[in-house]
Amino acid sequence: MLVNMREMLEKARTGGYSVGFFNAINVEMARAVIETAEELHAPVIIGTAEILLPVMSLERVAEYLLPMAQKASVPVAVHYDHGLTFDKCMEALKLGFSSIMYDCSTAPYEENLNRVAEMVRICHAMDVTVEAELGHVGDNEGEGKLLNPSDFYTDPAVAAEFVSETGADALAVAVGNAHGDYKFPPKLDFDRITEIADKTGVPLVLHGGSGLSDSDFREAAKRGICKVNIFTDLDRAGKVGVEKGLQAGSKYLSSLISYEIEAMKSVVREKILLFGSDGKA
Fold first, then answer.
1. Quick count: other Cβ atoms within 10 Å of Cβ 57?
2. By mean pLDDT, which of 79-93, 199-213, 229-243 is the weakest?
């Protein structure tokens, strides 16, 4: 069933577990995520991000994700992640996405607050949830890499004011996490997560989840992380599945699909069980 994130994340917050968000840039990824969630009776969040639109347009993603979510036997939120522009967020809203992340984290604080507050007013009128980001989660490499990530960590006191003023439903935080592959084991600031969760009273979101240890995920969920974003691990698994199919002698694209889906389902299953959201639908 198609839902927004509000109820599923509030249940996760009170229950001490996390719900996985998986980018699904093709039908095979979407099948892997939703079918596994149904098998484990778990709520799930699925969608795409603005940076991934060159791979698959927002309209094309909506064409397969929304009907699949509506037909699913478990709660599925269709989320537009890291929306960087107002116009693209509005496009996602008009297409029927049930949740929007408006990422204004690189803007000055007041601009971030005002832009998110406007998005919240629009989206709440349509029963769509809004995720914001305070602090800034950089990349592990490339143009988005931060030289001193701790300079951009989320301040708990400022986060409380930000959530109160904007009305955001969930808050992505910078606590030692980063997007992409980790070159060295990350060190999450768990005490900061606890303090932010206590001061804001809203579900917190961990971006850059691929590559963290199992113990990191479990501890983060206990501290207030209710949504974890996964893409790199899923993307890599799909490639490995295709390679396995080729090694098995598959000669056609159609015969590679089952290998691709099974490899990705394995990752989704692992994450849902790790996050503790199995049986929570």
1. 13
2. 199-213
Distance of CA 170 to the CA centre of its chain: 11
Rounded Cα–Cα distance for residues 111 and 88 (Å): 18
Residues annotated as catalytic are: 81
Q: What is the DSSP string of 169-227?
A: SEEEE-SS--BS--SS-----HHHHHHHHHHH-S-EEE---TT--HHHHHHHHHHTEEE
Per-residue pLDDT tens over the stretch 44-60 = 999 999 999 999 999 99
- As a dihedral over the C-alpha atoms of residue 276, residue 6, residue 113, residue 193, rounded to 10 degrees, the angle is -20
Q: Which fold has domain 2-275?
A: TIM Barrel (3.20.20)
pLDDT in tens, 224-272: 999 999 998 999 999 999 999 999 999 999 999 999 999 999 999 999 9
Token pair of 196, please?
A: 């932010």
- The dihedral sign for the CA sequence 196, 197, 201, 202: positive
Residue 198: other Cβ atoms inside 10 A:
12
Residue with tokens 């109160």: 164
Phi, psi (5° rounding) for residue 20? -80, 140
Task: Name beta bridge partners: 83.
Answer: 102
pTM of the model: 0.90
Q: Could you tell me whether strands 129-134 and 204-206 are parallel, antiparallel, or unpaired per DSSP bridges?
A: unpaired
Give CA–CA dist 100/4, Å, rounded: 9
Instruction: Give the CA dihedral 188, 189, 194, 195, nearest 10 degrees.
Output: -150
Kindly state the tokens that stand for 103.
């990422």
In the chain, alpha helices (H)? 6-15, 27-39, 58-71, 86-95, 109-124, 156-166, 190-200, 214-223, 232-247, 253-275
Q: Where are the domains of the chain?
A: 2-275
Q: Are 58 and 21 in contact (CB under 8 A)?
A: no
Q: How far apart are the C-alpha atoms of 267 and 227, rounded to whole Å?
A: 16
